Amino acid sequence: MKVIYYCYGSAHTSVLAAALHVGLLPLQKKADSETIKNLPYYDQVESDQIGSPILYGEDDLKNQVYILGLGGERKLMKQILYNYLELCGVNTNDIMLIGALTHANLWTKVGGFLSRRCGIITLGRPLTIYSLLKEYDCYVDLVLNVKQRLKQIAKAD
User: 17: closest CA among 144, 122, 128?
Assistant: First the structure.
């Protein structure tokens, strides 16, 4: 199974979710800001990488975990991606697309805009980290739900 956490630009919320999923961040307690800042790809994905899945790692069940930016038309892009994969003969039942923006608050979006779009990293990056830490438990719940679904799928096979 391939698990793809997607958001706007694959730089903040999808990275946080993927890092939780593959064990780079703790599920039992809140991470600290320095750990989040130093995650692979955190606040580093460039605009020209939006639309390209980036392998983030593998989970304990050997599922590959990716991050993906889908830009502003996430619903449309998700449908296009599934349709394209089906046309190519790929079994889309083996792919799980998970929206990671569902718990992003206004400050995450403002921080991401300042950092990635405006290049004001010294202000934007700390703002994204602060806001994601506020919503950390929601991301843990998201990832735990995905992991539970994956265990059910593995058990059924």
Answer: 144
